[in-house]
## 1
Amino acid sequence: MIIHHTSDDTVGEALGTLTDPRRAVSAHYLIGRDGAVHQLVDERARAWHAGESKWGANTDINSSSLGIELDNNGREPFPGAQISALLALLTDIQTRYSIPKANVLGHADVAPRRKTDPSRYFPWKTLAEHGLGLWCDPPYAERPVPFDDAVELQALGYDVSDVEAAIGAFKLHFLADESSRVMSDHDRALLHCLIQEKAR
């Protein structure tokens, strides 16, 4: 399941974009700021939401995931009603398809060189508290030494053909940090914790 924000200011604008054949972009679901859920593509069909992307060994995310767009311009918090509707939808999909919690991702996670959605305002911790996505809270156990940032990011799933972009996506998702592409020891301990959580 790949989560996006639309970058639009209204759900009407987003619906126009996602249903216009000339735009060649689509998603399975769009959730409005008010929590209204719009199904745009049948779950059994391929939607064009991820573009050039990769997670682990998977290089065809569009064919193996459901895309969920959130009506949000990327510069604002996500309303409670919208997140409640998202949690209900994700839980339903996860139950029906037995999707591992580690496979709830953001567009930036699978396309770190191109995308930054959902933004730093997205409440990943809230999702993880409902079994949707990975999360670790400090204090973290000490990370092993030596520690290779690229190898460990790849172990979590990131495409490390551009290591700086992968670091940026990792920090956006797990630290709500969109300003740095440098790993600190704190970040490395968090990454190590997430890899252990993924293996459970």
## 2
Amino acid sequence: MEKANLIITVTAVFILLFSNGNISDKINYPGESNSDQTSSKSVQTQTKSTQTVSKPVQTKPKSTQAVPKSTQSVQTKPKSTQTVTKPVQTKPKSVQTTTKPAQTKSKPVQKSSKPVPVTRSKDVGTVRIGTQTWAVANLNVSTFRNGDTIPEARTNKEWVAAGESGKPAWCYYNNDPANGPKYGKLYNWYAVNDPRGLAPAGWTMPGDADWTKLMYYLGGPDASGRKMKNTTGWIDGNIGTNESGFTGLSGGYRVENGTFLNLGSIGTWWSSTESKSSSAIDFYLSLSGSLGRSGSPRQRGESIRCLRN
């Protein structure tokens, strides 16, 4: 019995020791497991930090996505290109606009090609051309409108003296009175510009604008001359049609030194318009079919054609 009790006692001690060993193990292992868990937590924390690091990496694709947006801005360039093409389409419009004035310019030419209507006045000494009433003969008076006498320069010396002193003077071509009824008188421009009035009552001296108006009503410089020239009185058959009724004759002119020139080949008429300090505007018919315009010395002797007021 004592052996049996001893064995039981020893067995109980071993069991107790064995049990205590397991308890200590259980006590120690949780400590170890706590450290392991702590380390694992730190590992997870590192993993989290690693994930945190990876987040900026994810932002890079976002910036990469922003690149296509800029690519879309590149696509707006074709739109600006389309905008450029619109002004290109407007250019033909401006070209069409420029052609309209050209058509407008051609209209007066078409009008000039038609026969010029001539209205004969009851007064046989006038003709209606457009809106103007012209005398059909050159001026042939020897007094101003107020009755004062216009000096006649019969010699070259008298003619030169009148011109140098700026005084009015008149003459017949070649100082021959027989030329008066057909060609009228030749006057220097000082007689034209005299304040006493060279044109008779009811008449006026035509200016540059009046002559130009007549010219373009008859078709311009190139076409008007032939329509103004008389059907006789021009040398070598260089006559006109006198379509306008102006009855332009080649009465010649007298130059500053008193010499007479170009009877039968040139007709010249003063305007009342000054050109420079020593010249004035005149218009002339020649052997061609044109009506010319020039500035001539005021001492020169030329014909006068008046306009009805």
